[in-house]
Amino acid sequence: EGFLGLATSAQGGQTKIESFNGRFDIASGIATLPQQQLNADCAAVSFSGTTNLPKWLVDIGAKAGFSAHPEFPGLVIEQKGSLDAPSTRLVNLNQINDFVASKAVGTVLRKLLPGASQQQQQPSSGGTTTQPQSQPAGDPFKSLLEGLIKRR
Predict the structure, then answer these.
(1) What is the pTM of this model?
(2) Is 26 helix (H, G, I), strand (E, B) or coil?
(3) Whole-angstrom Cα distance, residue 87 to residue 101?
């Protein structure tokens, strides 16, 4: 859910650029971009690489991190090849898949395991305060299996 929200938030709109720090050098038709840093209100992006005009090639890598989603591994993208048809690749796709899968598993476990995401409250005798009910220690997967069996 959060990942889909992140993906859809990147569509359209305006992004405020807070700062940009970078430079480039051009020699013999080759543009070299040492580490560049762009900070926006939604992301921090760093990139570096080269563009070789005589050979008509590009080799640039970029990494974007999202401050609103610090657990997300960010996006690492590389673009290589011919200037008019470079190959663009998401380098850390496995990390992103692992992140999304772990969030999905966590969501499923919270829905299937009663009390997994929050402690249940029980009224105390004689006062207005409540004490958290302690959850028994044990194997969460065993609890999951028991919960599934009880639901049948």
Answers:
(1) 0.58
(2) strand
(3) 27
